[in-house]
Every structure is written in structure tokens, then in C-alpha cells.
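Archive entry: two folds, one per protein. Generate the first.
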Amino acid sequence: MKIHVDKLKKTFDVKTTNKVLRSVYQFQLDLAERASSQGKDGVGIFSDAIASIDLIEDFLVKILGLSKQDAEKLDDYFESEDVQKMANYVASRLMGMSDEEIKESTDNAEETDSKK
């Protein structure tokens, strides 16, 4: 599957093997678990936040096979929200969504957020 990541200005060819899909679902599960910070103290919350940043970057590096230079860009060059959007986009594509479906879903989420 060809996945174009606008921010990196590159297209990646990612095979949707069981190993890759398992990584996608594990990534989603790990993020969901870390986002559930109920009952955690400050240390736990910050620890989960750092782990989430590492998880997102590791996911992109592993799935896209990023070069060391591109991996460093994730940490040093892009804003955190941009890296999160990249990871969500890649995961969504690998779970079978088209670019159009992702855009529609993102637009709907942003519209909902702006109404709050």
C-alpha cells in the first residue's frame, strides 16, 4: 500500500502483513490505555505522556521504515500535533480507510471540536 506523508514529503510502500496490522492495533490499544489517566497522580500522568510521545514516534519509524534523519525530524522539527496526525493517518490507511474517508473523518472531528 502506498502511503504519502505530506509533512515528510515522501511516499512509503507498506505491506499490510499480519505483523504490520498487529503493530497498528497494538499502537491503537497502547494509546487508548495511556489516554485513560483516571486515578493517576501527576507522576503517572506525565509518565504516560512521555510514553505516548515515544510510542507514536516508534510506530512511525517501525511501520514506515524511516531513516535516522527522518526519525530525528519527528522529534526535533515537527510539532507534536503534526506527528500525532501523521501516526493517526498512517494507522487509518493501514486499517483500510481511503484518503477521502480520513479527510472526512478529520473534518467532522474538527467541526465537533470547534462547537465545544
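Generate the second and append.
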Amino acid sequence: MAKRPETIALENWLFARLNPRGKGRVSAYGATEVTLSTDASANKLGKGRKKAGYQGRVDFISIDTQRTVRAYEIKVSIQDFRTQAMKSWVGHYNYLVTTDELVDKHRDEILAALPDGVGWLTPTQTVRRPKRHALQIDETWLVWLMMRRNAMVVRDSRLQD
């Protein structure tokens, strides 16, 4: 299924936030749609099946040079937010990322449903700041999962060219 333009715009905004100065040393690394698992076999999902060790998929995740992990769930509609799909709050800091329109129309509903300590961002505002949590996945394994996902994205883009 193709991504909605609003989702792509929010992913691009998150990538731009990683190194806001745009020059000098890279201070954070990110990946989109990372499948979280406790072992590599969980990444090979059959149609309609989830293997043992599968922990969901995070829309965007980053790790900085201080080894702080931030996980982001991107929601572009209220129906997307209301879905029963797993939300992967696995980072030291976890965020819901939405459009400003969702804040304007559904602020109270979303705030009531957000777990304690999960922040809420839009491209123009911080609606709620996150609280630090214990990391819910092994850090070294997470870096491997991120690298694997980014390699898959590069491979797919080369196949399309």
C-alpha cells in the first residue's frame, strides 16, 4: 500500500529534525517503518502471520550519539489514531506525530488516549512533552534493525531506477 503524502511529509520533517543545522557532524540517525523483534526470523512475516518475537513496527525511530532512542508513531487522520493497530512505544522518549489539523479538531480525545509519558508533536508545535522511559528493546539489536531497514530502502530504490 502506498504511503499517504501527509505521512511522507511528516517522515521528511522528522529526518530534517535529526540534524537541524544541516552541516557539520551527524548527531542522530533515523529509519522509517522498522520492524521490531527479538530475533531476525520475526522479520520474515508470512501473509497474515506474526512470528514469535515480533514486537510491532515503529513508523520512525532515531538514535543519537548519546545513545538516546526516540520512537515516533505517525498518525495523519483520527481514524488512523483510533485503529487497534499496535503502537510501538519502545524508546527512551516516545512521540505521537500528527498534523496540526488533528490537534485543532481532536486535541481532547487524543490527549485522553495517549499513554502517560508519551509526547505529541506536529511540525509547528509541541503539544505535550514526553517523559523518559527505560528502553524496551536491546540497543545493539535496535541499531541492527535500523541498518537492515535502511539497507532495504536503498535496495528497493535502486530496483526502481
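Annotation attached to the second fold: The first strand starts at residue 28 and ends at 37. The chain is about 35% helix and 25% strand.
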